[in-house]
Structure formats: structure tokens, C-alpha cells
Amino acid sequence: MKNIANSVHIGELIAVSKVFHLNPLQMINLLENDVMEVFETKEDFLEKYGERDVYSELEDWCELNNGKVFTKQK
């Protein structure tokens, strides 16, 4: 089990959970099971996925105003 507390704040979980229509506990489970990823910066996200109009491997993604990017795999 990963310790996601080092990379994600509860406020970020609450904000992103509303975008993905999940509750924070579901978000934690998805993060622990690598279904969801957190990138510290948009540049980190773009380094992995590239800059495109459509990310077919992702169900959805969300960029917070602090620069973190959350992704959810299909």
C-alpha cells in the first residue's frame, strides 16, 4: 500500500473528487491501486502523455490551480 499522504493534501482530494464524481475514499483507493495518478506539475504530466487534444488511455484528467494534475485510467 502506498502512502499517498506525502503527495496529496485532503483539500486536493476533495476538490478533485467532485470533478471525477467520486468520494475521497474512492479516490484514495484508486490512487493506491495505480488507477489514478498525481503529477506535481503539468510538465510532468506532458512528459508522460504528451500534448494532445485527446488522451484515449485516460478516462479523465484534472489540473488544479496549484499545478498538480490528477489522471484516471480507463
Describe the structure.
The chain has 74 residues and is of the alpha+beta class. The protein has one domain. The chain is built from 3 helices and 3 strands; from the N terminus they run ααβαββ. It has helices at 10-20, 24-32, 42-49; strands spanning 36-39, 58-63, 69-73. It has a 3-stranded antiparallel sheet. Strand 2 (58-63) and strand 3 form a beta hairpin. The longest helix is centred in the first third of the chain and has 11 residues, at 10-20. The chain is globular. It starts with 9 loop residues before the first helix and ends with a strand. The relative contact order is 0.21. The model has no long low-confidence stretch (mean pLDDT 91).
What's the gist of this structure?
Helices cover 38% and strands 20% of the residues. With 74 residues, the protein is of the alpha+beta class. Strands 1-3-2 form a three-stranded antiparallel beta sheet.
Indicate the structural class: alpha+beta
Beta content comes to 15-25%
Please state how the strands of the largest beta sheet are arranged side by side: 1-3-2
Morphology call: globular
Which features would summarize this protein structure in a list?
74 residues; alpha+beta; three-stranded antiparallel beta sheet; 3 helices
